[in-house]
Amino acid sequence: MIQVSTLKNRLDFMKTMIIGLLAVCVTIGSCAGSKTIESSKTVQPEGLYDVIALDHTRLTEAHPTINIDLNQNRVTGSAGCNQYGGTLVMSQNNFSVDSIICTKMYCSDPVMAVEFKFLKLIGTPMRWLQKGDTLSLSSNESENTIIAVKSNGQ
């Protein structure tokens, strides 16, 4: 009789352990699922943006644009005077534009100064952060290197 009760106690203990392990697995699985849902809510920048500041300086002379096409991995827009385009390389919060091409018109010196600075910055690897309609691109040297807002047209 003692052996039967010991065996029954062991079975009860094993049942409790299995149920406990299943509860832990379900809890861990549901937490991992919520993280996946949370990360899928991160909205990548896409569409047309108007650049309002470069290197912490509000723009008044020229207003470059950034048009991000995630489907074709392309970035196009106005650099202030000339049109530009390039290949978008984007992963998690990293943003860079490779193989930039640009038209070669001449505009006033202040506009060309903005364009030169914009093209130099947009060609460097940066981190992106989107809050509402505002897109901030930050280099390793400086936060908010380029600040752009979603265009009213999109």
Main traits of this protein?
Lipocalin; eight-stranded antiparallel β-barrel; alpha+beta; 154 residues; 2 helices; 9 strands; 34% helix; 2 domains
CATH overall fold name of the largest domain: Lipocalin
Number of strands: 9
- Ranges where pLDDT stays below 50 over 5 or more residues in a row are 32-40
- Shape descriptor: rod-shaped
Structural class estimated from helices and strands: alpha+beta
Q: If helices are DSSP runs of H or I spanning 4 or more residues, what is the number of helices?
A: 2
The gyration radius over C-alpha positions equals 27 Å
Distance between the termini: 80 Å
Count of the domains: 2
Report the CATH C-level class of the largest domain.
Mainly Beta
Quick one: biggest sheet?
8 strands, antiparallel, barrel
CATH architecture classification of the largest domain: Beta Barrel
Major beta sheet, strand line-up: 1-3-4-5-6-7-8-9
What is the N-to-C order of secondary-structure elements (H for helix, E for strand)?
HEEEEEEHEEE
- Relative strand content: 35-45%
Helix content: 25-40%
Mean pLDDT: 82
